[in-house]
Structure formats: structure tokens, C-alpha cells
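Deliverable D5.2: sample structural annotation.
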Amino acid sequence: MNRIEKIKEFLQQNPKDNFLRHALALEYIKEGNDTEARILFEDILKDSPDYIGSYYHLAKLLERLNETQAAITCYEKGMEQAKAAKDNHAYNELQAAYEDLVY
């Protein structure tokens, strides 16, 4: 059983587990399945806008898809959430990626 199958098995027991959904999205990225990864990241952030880690990965995915404005918006939302959560590490990572893209 590969990693994707294992994570999906765990998700059957707890389909809204953000950690598992995020992990599954990262596995999809590894195998080049950006469509499924994007759906998962967007679902996570729709359900839990405070799940800060997904903003970075979704924005990077959007950059790869040449959806620059969507990536910028995603970084900005992530920075807002990180600031609200007082998560300086996440804020700094998002800000650095945002600045690399914008400037």
C-alpha cells in the first residue's frame, strides 16, 4: 500500500482531518497531480481558514500554474491568518515567498 492509499484509508475514518488532507495534498504534488492537491488545499482553507500551512503550499502551486494573482491573494490571506494567530515563523515564510513573487 503506497502513502496515498494509507492516507486515504485514515481519511475514511476522519474525512475532515486537516493534517491528513494536507499530507495527502503534498503527496499528490510529489506525483505531479496538482489538480487533486489544489482541490484539497482549497477545501482545507474553506473549512479552516486558520490552517496556515496550507496557504504557502497552495500559493506555490498557483505560482507553478502561472496563476500569479491568485497566488498573491493566497499569500496575503495566509499572512493575515498568521498575523492573527501570532505565528511569526509562518508569517515570515509567507511574506518572503510573497515578496519573491511580487518584487
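Annotation notes: The radius of gyration is 14 Å. The helical segments are 3-13, 18-30, 34-47, 53-64, 68-84, 88-102.
The annotation will be released with the project's public dataset once the embargo ends.
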